[in-house]
Each structure stands twice: as C-alpha cells, then as structure tokens.
Amino acid sequence: MSDLRERLTRAPKVVLHDHLDGGLRASTLLELADEIGHDLPESTPEALAAWVQRQADSGSLAAFLEPFSHTTAVLQTPHALERVARESVLDLAADGVVVMESRFAPELSTAGGLSIEEVLDAVLAGLHAGAAEAADAGRPIRVGAIVCAMRQADRSLEAARAALSRRDAGVVGFDIAGPEIGFPATDHAEAFALLRSELFPFTVHAGEAVGPESVAQALAVGASRLGHGVRVLEDVTVGGDDSATAGSGHASARPHFGRVASYVRDRQVPLEVCPRSNTQTGTSPSIAGHQVTALRDLGFTITLSSDDRLWTGTTLTDEMVLLAEEAGWGWDDFRQVTLDALDAAFIGQDERMALLEHVVLPGWTD
C-alpha cells in the first residue's frame, strides 16, 4: 500500500470540492487568532488540529460546526483572506493537485466591514499568488474560485451578482452551502435564474443531510454538479422494496432506478464526493460501507475531494488511500474519477483538453 500511496501522491489530481474556511492550516489559524486577540481552545498547531478533528468525529452537529466559529472569526480582513487562499493553493499543489476549485461564502467574512466584492478580491489575489508560487516551485496548478451563498440566509442574489462581476478575474462558479434541512435550493430561485441567464455554471450542496428530494431540488434550479450527492443512492432499489445499500453493489438483482436517480445517472451529473467528511457527518456509515462504491458500480459519475481538510485531517491522496485500503478501490478507479473530475471542472474545453493531453493522461499512465 505504501507503493500505491507514493504513486497516488505523484499522480495529477483534480479537486472540485474544497472549502477555504475548512482547510486552513492549524498554525495559520493560531497566528491569525493571535493577531486579533481571538481565543482558541488549544495553543499549539498539533493540539488545535487534533481538537478540530475530535469535534468533527464527535457525531454531534453542534460540535462539528463549533470550529467554524473560530475560522470565520479570523477571516475578516484582506490580509487573512489572501494568506489563507495562497496557502490553500500551495498545500493542494504539494499533494499533486493540478486543478483546484476553492469554494467559500464571502458573506461570512463581512462582519468586520468588508463588502462581498472586497472579500472576493482578497481571496482571488491569494489564489493567484499561490498559483504563481506553486508554478515557480515546479508544481503548476490551475485555480478557480466558487462563490457560495448560505442557504439559511437571504444574500444569494447579492452573492450571485458579485460572482458574475468577477467571472473574468478567477471566479468560475457558484454554490449554496449550509443546512439542507428546511432550506431547499428552490428558496434561492432568483439567484439561480440570474446565473442561468448569464450562462454561469453552478453546483449545489445536495444529497448529504437530505435524500433524493434535495437532489431533485438542486436539479430543478439547474445545478450542473452535486456537492456530495451520495444519498441519491436511496432512490435505487435492488430486489423488492429494499434500497440499494452502500457497498452492496447490484450483483444479486437488477437495480431499479427512481426518477431522481435515473436523471442523475442517465445525464451523468457529476457527484462531488468527500468520503472522510461524509463519515464524520453521519451521511455514510464508514469508508468500507460508503455509498460511493455502490454508486461507482451502478454507473454514476464520481469525483473525489476532501471537503474541509482541517476537519478531515486528510488530503486527496489520503482519501484515495482510504478507499483503496477499506473499500478495495484500485489505480484504474482513481484514474477514472480524476478524468471525470477534469471533465466536470468549470473550465473551458480548450484548456481542459490541453491539461488532459499534457498533464493528466501522462501522469496516470501505468
């Protein structure tokens, strides 16, 4: 397995689902908190990272969310936003990522007086600086920003307009994040209508805390990808009325696809799957029993990401190794999800084909 890890580390990878405020370095969180006099529960990077991961693994939603109060508190200045964005690019490039889309909700960084546009400009400056530094170090990486709006708030139209205003400066897409339960995607229909009218792509968090009905809502507003999306498996049955279960595959009987699952599979709507995160939130029972393996076997389009890297304590390479060790995935599986992720990325076709020919395919040659 050590040989596979080394090969996967070197292989060119694509990350489509990475939260900026969930992936900052523990050392940076400590330094930024010290600059503004914000108290943290631990005083060393190692202890702080361990605390965040304990909170994430606790099984309590309140505990899982508590560390975000600290990351949000420190991300209220252009300096902090630019630094964290720059470092996120360097960290992903060090893991062999060649295409990354960094998502964040600018409205969460306006408590100190910044406008959404000022937040965007600071993050974009950091992403571009990180990409330039990574290229100078021999690790070129293509970066893009996805603007999130919080689904429990009412600023999605404002966020969508801001995203459109920076579409030529590095913003490549839009998303809504936050609690699925009680806050359907259709509540933000006006923002999505604007984005569709401007031919601007967007993904939607769906099928994580809520099942196929949330996926249906995301599709109804026009999502071209699904953030997580794994609970669409609940709309697949195998024999009688039993739902297809994660890891069960479909060898024992011909599966029946409900309308939502059929739509997602037939149109190959990409799923942005984050295995370790899903086990922390209770969306999936374990890596071995994660829905992603059954979804792969059933012909859905799968991509892999690490979601909130400080919370999960993993890299994309780590996520792949976990699937190899606990769910039997192999090199060809990871090559395919990488190709599918590149195909689903919010980048132009000419650039995509150049990356495919000159970077991704050569790096995944056996």
Highlighted features:
366 residues, alpha/beta, TIM Barrel, four-stranded parallel beta sheet, 10 strands, 49% helix, 14% strand, globular
Describe this structure in words.
By secondary structure, the chain is of the alpha/beta class. It has helices at residues 2-10, 26-36, 45-56, 61-74, 78-94, 116-136, 156-165, 189-197, 212-220, 259-266, 275-281, 291-297, 309-312, 316-327, 331-344, 349-363, and strands at residues 13-19, 97-104, 142-150, 171-177, 203-206, 225-228, 236-238, 255-257, 271-273, 302-304. 49% of the residues lie in helices and 14% in strands. Strands 1-2-3-4 form a four-stranded parallel beta sheet, with helices on both faces. β5, α9 and β6 form a beta-alpha-beta unit. α1 packs antiparallel against α14 and α2 packs across α4. The longest helix has 21 residues, at 116-136. The protein is globular. InterPro entries: A_deaminase_dom, Ado/ade_deaminase, Metal_Hydrolase. Its EC number is 3.5.4.4. Belongs to the metallo-dependent hydrolases superfamily. Adenosine and AMP deaminases family.
In total, the number of domains comes to: 1
Largest sheet descriptor: 4 strands, parallel
Average pLDDT reading: 94
* CATH topology value: TIM Barrel
Helix/strand-derived category reads alpha/beta
Tally of DSSP β-strands: 10
Question: Number of helical segments?
Answer: 16
Task: Determine Rg (CA atoms, Å).
Answer: 19 Å
GO molecular function: adenosine deaminase activity; metal ion binding
EC number: 3.5.4.4
Family: Belongs to the metallo-dependent hydrolases superfamily. Adenosine and AMP deaminases family.
GO biological process, one term: hypoxanthine salvage
